[in-house]
Design brief:
two-stranded antiparallel sheet, about 15% strand, alpha+beta
Length: about 220
């Protein structure tokens, strides 16, 4: 009989070992880590221990992810409270930069808004943006994460532009229309990568959009 036939027979006839119970004590198999043979029951115990260790590692990973998400949620809450309390455009920009750089450890933050209100002094946030980039922001269904190549957004980071290796671009919207974009930059190529989760970046965009819509026409 082939090994496959034996395995199929035992699976189809679990009562076999009830009829030949003594056989279990007489069967010895190789130790999974080599060196000696062990009984079938001992091998089964080792297999169960290995499975338990795998489950423990997975549980530890889930707990770590949960703790990380709790920490991010707490930071988002602090940012939300600050943005709600902000009453002017400058206050919103200051809070955004402070929390993203100091709380979230994002080294470079840049914001661009398409429409400059009348009577507003020249501010970096209202620097003209190409039509191509505005169209790109309009098509974003979720934040873009990856390289800065081909976007022209690296210049938004000023003197640090040539050192930026990864970025996240988040469209800002109000009433269904795109009003601007946030760029987050890092010298670490893996800080913002193509397949990373973007849930919190999406929430950040919604928070900032709401705050800016409220204060953009306030006294600047």
């Amino acid at each position: 009989m082939s090994a496959e036939a034996v395995a199929q027979y035992l699976q189809a006839n679990p009562q076999f070992f009830e009829q030949y119970a003594d056989l279990l004590a007489e069967i010895f198999v190789p130790h999974p880590h080599g060196g000696r043979t062990i009984s079938l029951s001992e091998r089964q115990m080792l297999t169960l221990r290995d499975k338990n260790k795998q489950l423990e590692r997975k549980l530890a990973e889930l707990l770590a992810f949960g703790e990380e998400n709790d920490a991010i949620s707490e930071k988002m809450h602090r940012l939300s409270v600050g943005l709600i309390a902000a009453e002017t455009f400058q206050a919103v920009i200051h809070l955004l930069n402070f929390h993203l750089r100091d709380d979230f450890a994002i080294p470079h933050v840049a914001l661009r808004l398409w429409d400059k209100p009348a009577g507003v002094d020249d501010l970096p946030e209202f620097t003209a943006v190409s039509e191509e980039l505005q169209v790109f922001a309009e098509t974003l269904t979720k934040p873009y994460c990856g390289s800065t190549s081909g976007f022209g957004t690296a210049s938004w980071f000023g003197e640090h532009a040539e050192h930026i290796r990864s970025q996240a671009l988040i469209a800002l919207r109000n009433g269904g229309g795109t009003i601007g974009m946030i760029a987050l930059g890092s010298e670490d190529v893996q800080r913002f990568y193509a397949d990373m989760g973007t849930l919190y970046l999406e929430r950040l965009g919604e928070l900032v959009s709401a705050a800016l819509a409220r204060v953009t026409h306030s006294a600047l």
